[in-house]
Design brief:
Elements lengths: L14 E13 L3 E7 L4 E7 H4 L1 H8 L6 E10 L7 E12 L13 H6 L1 H4 L3 H23 L3 E2 L5 E2 L11 E4 L2 E5 L4 H11 L1 E9 L12 E10 L3 H22 L1 H6 L4 H5 L6 E4 H10 L12 H8 L6 E4 L22 E6 L4 E8 L4 H10 L4 H12 L5 E7 H9 L20
Parallel strand pairs: 3-5, 6-10, 12-13
Antiparallel strand pairs: 1-2, 1-4, 2-3, 4-5, 7-9, 8-9, 10-11, 11-16, 13-14, 14-15, 15-16
Length: 429
């Protein structure tokens, strides 16, 4: 019977066949231990010389790392094994013998591993991170589908910037200028006016020459937009969403969290509601702690980390100065110097994972913002139309997938949280 490692627990006491790769092995004179992986998980195969025979045992001892195999054996329960099972191997058929696999069990430098990213993905640690990434995506779809959101796909090629910045990748669109999307938000606002509550999930691009552990050139965003939803309701949706995703990972990825040696007790605390502090209070806190920062300045990684250390759950920082936020954010009803927005800061030094706001719904005010930010009304006329024809209060946010994966998995650098990272100095492989 052919099966997979992930479902092998359904076949205790039965003989099964796995298609697998040999990730590692060790042997004595009488027993060989094969570390097998098939993409769905890892398991140990045990070969006993007295049962396999001299010739077969010798061939198994000579198997090379990452050779592709068909392995047949009996499934046995083993509480010492991470998966709870092992395979008593009766036969091994070689599909393909790998020669001189470059990533050996010894230590390798980061650049070497990044040059061999196409192979590094096979390691137990990278497998665990990618599996948890997939669970976060799966849980995202489940959450928003249950909450009545419609999935909408905004364009990747755009004629203008979502946030009025110059950090865009330029290309030619026949005889016009075009840019790789830095956010699908503006298009999602249009979709929300048609479908009520929508979300997108797709790649975004920022031509920022940043080398920090939190930044990628190409990354993936989850961007919901909601008609008839004010800022307060949006915050509640955000904290419920993050709580749901974290709980789904705990429930469905325990083996992977264990492989990463992640402190699950820290994740178990992630339940709504989350703490909220104002930008004003955050500045006062940082100044009291000795940071040289003035009101009106944006927060850097050290500032966000210092604030997060006061909490064991994510924390919202509310109402930033309008001069350091995007043109589309709605002013605070009681102050003209701040806007109705929030950044959600993850615990343990992982920084901002969500940015969100209530959007301007007044046509005249938005037109005024266009002028203040030197934005072309021609390029943004369609966006202004959303306020001209049936405008309503609406809010939205964007969650950066890779930063969220880094936080939940406890991974230090975001380059390990995406299959093939695009960094300032890396476009290969």
């Amino acid at each position: 019977m052919k099966t997979t490692i992930r479902t092998i627990g359904n076949h205790v006491g039965e003989e099964v066949t796995l298609g697998a790769w040999l990730s590692n092995k060790r042997s004595s004179g009488k027993i060989a231990f094969l570390q097998l992986r098939d993409g769905s998980g890892f398991i140990q195969g045990v070969v006993v010389k007295a049962e396999a025979g001299e010739e077969a045992f010798q061939k198994i001892k000579e198997l090379t790392q990452e050779s592709a195999l068909y392995v047949t054996g009996t499934v046995q329960k083993d509480d010492r094994a991470p998966s709870g099972y092992e395979l008593a191997v009766s036969s091994v058929d070689v599909i393909h013998e790998a020669v001189d696999y470059p990533i050996t069990p010894k230590e390798h430098g980061t650049e070497f591993l990044m040059d061999h990213r196409h192979l590094w993905l096979r390691s137990r640690r990278q497998h665990a991170i990618m599996t948890i990434r997939n669970e976060i995506i799966r849980a995202t779809y489940e959450f928003f589908n249950k909450e009545g959101f419609v999935k909408v796909d905004p364009p990747i090629l755009t004629g203008s910037s979502a946030e009025g910045t110059t950090n865009l990748f330029h290309t030619k669109y026949f005889d016009e200028d075009a840019y790789l999307s830095q956010s699908g938000q503006l298009y999602m606002e249009a979709a929300a006016m048609a479908l009520g509550r929508v979300f997108s999930f797709g790649p975004t691009f920022r031509a920022e020459k940043s080398k920090t552990r939190r930044h990628l050139i190409e990354f993936w965003m989850i961007e919901p937009e909601m008609a008839f939803v004010d800022h307060e309701e949006s915050l509640e949706i955000q904290e419920n969403y993050v709580s749901f995703v974290v709980q789904s990972v705990i429930d469905n990825c325990r083996l992977e969290l264990d492989a990463l040696e992640r402190d699950i007790t820290a994740l178990e605390k992630i339940k709504a509601p989350f703490a909220r502090i104002s930008y004003d209070d955050a500045i006062a806190f940082l100044q009291k702690e000795g940071y040289e920062i003035e009101w009106g300045e944006d927060f850097g990684a050290p500032h966000e980390t210092a604030i997060a250390e006061s909490f064991d759950k994510p924390v919202f920082i509310l109402n930033y100065p309008k001069d350091i936020k995007a043109f589309y954010m709605k002013p605070h009803p009681e102050r003209d110097d701040v806007v109705l927005c929030a950044d959600l800061i993850a615990p343990e030094g992982y920084g901002e994972i969500i940015g969100g706001s209530q959007r301007i719904d007044d046509e005249a005010l938005l037109a005024e913002r266009f002028k203040e930010h030197n934005l072309s009304e021609d390029a943004y006329q369609w966006y202004l139309d959303l306020r001209k024809y049936g405008s309503v209060p609406h809010s939205g946010f964007g969650l950066g997938l890779e930063r969220t994966v880094a936080w939940i998995t406890g991974t230090e650098h975001v380059r390990e949280t995406i299959p093939f990272p695009r960094l300032l100095n890396r476009l290969y492989p």
